Amino acid sequence: MNEGLTTLVGKDHYEIFRGDSFQILLDTPSLALKTAIQVRCLLRKSLISDQLHQNPTSKKASKANPLQYSYKREVVDARISIGLGKTGYKGPNIKTSDGEAFQLSGRALDSLKSKGPRLVVATPQEEFNAYMEVICSLLDVFINNWSVQQAEVIYELLEGKKQQEIADMLHITQASVSQRISSAHWQEVEKAVALFQQKTKNLA
């Protein structure tokens, strides 16, 4: 997870604590939803050692990519609360920093139940929050059903990569990438991210 977050936001923009919790501080608020989706992609496509199973009798398994010979019993995911606001006090690290964005995010995260929504946006503007609640609910439906293969493709699309680039990276055909894109509802996800970017730039 550390490696994935470092690649995504940079080593100075996140902090992991209590083992399974993390905070990310972005300089560009309009990228928050895109980043949140990519974090969930990272988690969904991650391999946990005790969930990795290979056929010990297969001679190919020891040399090939373990993704080709593995499955996950449980999908790894996270509840993410996006707080948009002033940062206020900046401490020596993200965990000790404080301000409107941190407080909004914290309160919204506390409101998320373990079996409820996994994505929420909190701002000082209630109308915008209600607007985003609908969008996040729809995104949750899509993300909760993504396979490992769909998650890795969506992550790269959010990075701005083209279908053929992704196909070359994953050593699959462009047609396979296209199928994953369609079944993951990428067009709807892309529109939601673009709309969030536009709306947040207009927030006071």
Structural notes for this entry:
This is SatD family protein. There is one protein chain. The protein has 204 residues and is mostly helical. It has one domain (1-47, 76-202). The protein has eight helices and four strands. The protein has a two-stranded antiparallel ribbon with strand order 1-2. Strands 3-4 form a two-stranded parallel sheet. The longest helix is centred in the middle third of the chain and has 19 residues, at 126-144.
Structural class given helices, strands, pairing?
mainly alpha
List the total number of helices.
Answer: 8
The separation of the N and C termini measures: 34 Å
pLDDT < 50 stretches: 48-73
Number of strands: 4
Mean pLDDT score, rounded?
Answer: 84
Q: Helix-strand pattern, N to C?
A: HEEHEHEHHHHH
Q: Tell me about the biggest sheet?
A: 2 strands, antiparallel
Q: What's the helix and strand layout?
A:
Elements: H1 2-9, E1 14-17, E2 21-24, H2 32-44, E3 80-83, H3 100-111, E4 119-122, H4 126-144, H5 148-158, H6 163-170, H7 174-183, H8 186-201
Parallel strand pairs: 3-4
Antiparallel strand pairs: 1-2
Helix pairs in contact: 1-2, 2-5, 4-8, 5-7, 6-7
Descriptive terms for the model:
204 residues; mainly alpha; two-stranded parallel sheet; 8 helices
